Amino acid sequence: MHHTFYRTSSILALVAIVALAAFRFANNDDFVNEVLAKFQAYNLQRPVEKVYLHTDRDTYLTGETIWMKGYVFNGNTHTADTISKVLYVDLIDPTARRVRQRLQLRSSSSYAPGQLLLPDSLASGTYMVQAYTNYMRNFPETYYFRKTLTILKADGSTASTASKSASPDRLDVQFLPEGGQLVEGLESRVAFKALEASGRGLPVEGFVLNTRKDTITGLASTQLGVGFFTLNPEAGQTYTAFVKRLGSGQFTAYPLPDVQKEGVVMQVDNISNKDNIRVYLRHNKAITDPPATMTLFAQTRGQVVQVAKVPLAKRGALVQLPKAEFPQGIAQLTLFDETSKPICERLIFVNKNEQINITLSPNKTSYKNREKVELSISTTGSDGKPVAANLSLAAVDARLAPEIDSNSASIVSHLLLSSDLTGTIEQPSYYFNPKNEDRWRQLDLLLMTQGWRRFVWADVLAGTIPPVKYPIEQGLSLTGRVVRPNQKDIGGKVKLTFVLSRRDSTRDFLTGDTDESGYFGAYDLDFTDTTTVLIQGVKGKANRDLAISLDQLLTPTVTITRVPYNPFEFRRDELGEFIKRTREYQEIEEQIRRNREVLLQSVTVKAKKFKERDSRVIYGTPDASVKFDPMNTAGRITILDVIQGRIAGVQVMGSGLSARVQIRGAANFGGAVEPLFVLDGMPVDMQTAINIPVNDVDQVDVLKGASASIYGSRGGGGVISILTKRGSPNYDLAKEAAPGTLVAKLPGYAPVRAFYSPRYDDQSKKTEQEKLNAARPDYRTTLFWSPLIQTNAEGKATVSFFTSDAKTNLRLRAEGATISGMPGMAQHRIQVD
Predict the structure, then answer these.
(1) Cα(first)–Cα(last) distance of the chain, in Å?
(2) Domain count of the fold of the chain
(3) Is residue 581 in a domain?
(4) Which of 38, 64, 79, 816 is the most core-located residue (most Cβ within 10 A)?
């Protein structure tokens, strides 16, 4: 048994060790260097982002609000990723496969707080909330963050789901040889997974027969439907497994994968040794002289950690990979055969205990109704030393919001496990709870059966890097295409004007060109709540025979393989009090809202009308101004044609698109100085200015000499300020229906509301409205939500809130991470007597 092992932290050391150890492997060394170079290039051009979404709970009534906080991480290093500034959150109806609601949350320093109001129009049933960045759309949707929610109506009515209608007897059983293949005469472990129609794992039992109907082995799974057995395939035999639910039902036959006559098998021991990962390799290939060589690559999140070269001189080899060299998380072991083809693969989890410990310490062991809870929060590293972390915290009534799955996903399980795997992970937090002594064996078994496809080795080896179609967003985007009305290519660039009109009457005015194929993109925009967007295209001399499409208006597609299993579908009786109390609280809030509206209607306010200031104008009274109307614009092509001869001191030379302009007295030692053109408050070049259709202009102001000094040195040649009709805060863009124009209402960043938590302390300091709120019954399900808790350098923070009228247990859950990407989660219970 002989192999050469080396770390990849030093390529020079890598080559030297190989050359000294075995010069005959020079060609394979070239292969190693080639793979390392291509792998690095692939990951540099295809970095990864990860997203996690913490919601205050998992069950809601229509009319309630989902409080949430998004976390955005660098997917390769798990550090706080501050690149993507927009986090998309979709509420999906998985049965109808439709997005019912969509949010755009502003991500600042990797954190994106927000909320989603659930309309009464939603039907009861199982929903999914998914979160992702625009850049993550370059990868399969299976790597988006997804979470199952239950949404109910006040009458308790339910909608049928696919998980209920599917046959409960149908089992999906998969058999997966460790490493990927069965080979004649080589003993292998065969993992299996049994799922019911809803996707939930079920315990099964059975046996395996060969072609001669001999019983080869029995099989039995764990509670989650996974397990393994050992098989030594014989030549000329095929194998069939007979499986049934544990303790009941009929056996169903499932063929095992075909047996290969020649090949290699891989068996990995990641459990028995605390220092090393042991990889056992066996083969039945012909031994050549000199012996050929296989190569084992170990990589974690885009970083090749270790490489081992294994000659085929003997039938078996043991490769030991030091765990200390691996980052924490899922590692992928890939074996390349002597022809440089990947033939075996295995996922393992390397635990480094790199998590933060969050401690929630209330100031009392139990509380009365409407009593103040003062909560101290501390965050420490695995070494017990304090670390600063950013957390989100929810406090809910445990009786109104029962916890069905104590092993549901957390920021720890998602970041370290689920975000790198395809398919649903059932009870993911089970594998990170120290109380479960068998968790590492169960996790190792899970990784023998779970899919992982962040990349395809064939693409890496071929140097084929999929293009990045969706860029990283530093702000909101408007993208689309301009074509002819018959949808044919426009044939060249088109000049575009964008006007964004906000609810507060402020407006942004942008200009630009499409590419030669008509595609356009306006990026890094910043607007909140619903905004009216106007896009106008002009090609040639005011030619508007154009059709404009906007990607943001398209209905998003939803890819779902099966409706997710939802435990609440089978335990709705536990939600009876939740529905009753929540509806009572909503009715009280509705009555208070109606009373407030009646009070406002009875008040008459007399005051002078406030004239809103035009935000496009930073100057006072201009030196001259020309109001554009049908009379003075008739037959004119550009704004210069209109103002020519109408403003003293403004000299226009030529006409049409070739005209030039100078304001008298604007000169220096170098000669005449051209004026600065400003379009709706934004400086533009002269070519852009004279391409503005005159019918779109409201007026043109001219600033000379001292008046233009407000624009600094740029106004040395005077200023020509163009104010368009659409740029006016009083202009209604929604009425625009001109050819070559698109008008749409688009959501911007969702405005972040503060969570209302009533205070029941000193009533003398409260407003009348606060006193009125305090007088009503309080049976809230979520008592407290705080999305941005930052512990200091000593790992400390404090928050406070008040208990409700319910005598119950409060369930506290805090999640978060350090800036370096160490995640943590903690839960605590508070008794209210």
Answers:
(1) 69
(2) 5
(3) no
(4) 816
